[in-house]
Design a protein that fits this description.
By secondary structure, this protein is of the alpha+beta class. It has 22 helices and 13 strands. It has 4 domains: 134 residues, Beta Polymerase, domain 2; 79 residues, Orthogonal Bundle (Hydrophobic Seed Protein); 158 residues, Hypothetical protein af1432, CATH 1.10.3210; 47 residues, no CATH class. The mean pLDDT is 91.
Amino acid sequence: MFDESSPLYKAAYKVVERIGQGRAFFVGGCIRDTILELPLKDIDIATELGPKQVMSLFPGSELIGADFGVVLIKMDGHAFETTTFRIDGRYINFRKPVSVTFGTMQDDANRRDFTINALYYDPIKEEIIDLVDGLTDLKYRMLKCVGDPMERFGEDALRILRAVRFNIRLNMNCNYDMMFAAKKLAPNLAKISAERIRDELTRIMIHEQAPEAFELMCHWGVLEVLLPEVVKLIGCKQSPIHHKEGDAWVHTMLVLKNIEPRDSVHVWSALLHDIAKPDCFSEFENFHGHAEMGAKMSETILSRLKFSNDEKNLIISAVRDHMKFLDITKMKKSRLRNFMSEDHFELGKNLHRADCESSSKDFTALDYLKNKTQEFIQEDGAVLPKALVDGDQIMKRLGITPGPLVGKILNKIREAQLEGIITTEVGALSYADVLLESNTNEEY
C-alpha cells in the first residue's frame, strides 16, 4: 500500500518496529491520502503505550503535548508525532478537551473528527484497521463525522471549515446530518481564535477549487460569520460590457481561481481586490474609489484575522494599486519605473493578470510591461538604477545644510534620471545648481 522505498516510510516503520508489533500504528491522513494516491507529506503514529514508555524507547524524544499524550520522535531526519490512544473529556473554548483519559484503539477512533481520518495501519502486518467504516466512506467519496456531527462540531467548530476543505480537496460529498450540523453550529466559528480561522481559510483558498468551497461556505452560513464583507459581493451588478462574466461575486471567484502562484498573499489579494465594490456602487456602475476603500477594508479584515504586518502590507498595497495597471501605458517613465520597483509590484502584476483573465481578456498592460522591462534593463542594467548622487554630495556642492530643500532637489534629480534626461553624476550636480538658482519656496 505505502511506497516502502520512501525514506519517510522507512523511518516511520522503524518507530513502529521499536515500539512493538501490535502496539503502534500509522493513523489518519497518511492512510487516507495513500489510498487516494495523493502525495504523502507526513505520517502520524498512535500507540497503546503511555508517553513515558514511548520516551524511554526513544532517547531525545520530546513531550509536546503532556496533557494529550503526544511525543515528538525524531528518526533518520524525520519527525513523527506519536499519540497515546485516548478518550477526550468535555471540550472547552470549542478547541480542547478539559481532560483526557488513555484508552483503547476503539476509544481513540471514536474521538476523531471524520471517519476517513480514523483509519489505522499496521506496517508490519501491512493491514488496515477500520473501526468506523471509513474505508466504505472513502470508496464512495462520502465525508461523515465519527458519531454525531452535532457533537463533533460542537466540540471544535473549526471542524466545519475542515469539512469544507476536505470536501474540495478530496472531492467528497457531505451527508445530510453533517450539513445540518454545520449550518446549525456555524455561528460558533465566531468563538474560534482568529489565527486558527485564518490558517484554515488560507488552506481552503490555496486550492484551485476554492470557489466551490466559498459556495459551500455560503450555503452553510459560514461566510456570513467569518467574512460578511465578501458575502456582500453577491448580486453586486457590474457593467456587462466590461464584465460579461457576471456580478462582483462571480468575478471575484474567477480571480481567486485564476490567481498564480497560489500562496497566502496572492489568494487573499484576489479575494479582497474588489471587496469595496458594493459600498462604492452607483447608478453609473463605475465603482469610483473602490480600490482605495478596498485597501482600508482589507486592513480591517486582515487585522481581524491577525495577519503578519509583512503579509498585510503586501495585500493592502496590491488591493490599493490594482486599478493603476489600467493606466500603466500612460505613466511617465519615472513614475512607471518607481511603480515597477515597489515591493508589491509582482504581486500586483499577477493579480492584474488574473483580473484580466477573469473579465476583459485584455493583456495590453502586461505586454507593455514586458517590453518596458527589457528596455529599462538595456538602458541602465536595472528597472530602477542606482541614484546618480546622494544628499551629502548635494549639500557639499550647493553649500546648504540638511533640510527639506535637499530632499526636493534629490527627488527632481531622480525624476530626471529615470526619465533619461540626466545620465551622469556630473549632469546631476549641474542640474542641482540650476534647481537651487531657480528655487522659489514651493517650486519643488
